Amino acid sequence: MDYHILREFADSWAMLALFAMFIGIVFWAFRPGSRKTHEDTANIPFRHDDKPACQGGGCQGGRCHDDGATL
Questions:
Q1: pTM (global) more than 0.90
Q2: Domain boundaries, the chain
Q3: Residues 28-65: pLDDT tens digits?
């Protein structure tokens, strides 16, 4: 293949395909049904504001059951 042919393809059809994919992703991200998912993801830092959540068996006396790390 010649460089000129690949360059011409990249400047025309490949650019149009990538632009169409970008527009599709933007429409998919802002669709009305995704509002709950986006709000849930945005609130991750505030979920356990009062006390940290332990992974595994829960907390008891400030220590986690699974690894023994002090919180």
A1: no
A2: 3-64
A3: 999 988 889 889 999 888 887 776 666 555 565 555 55
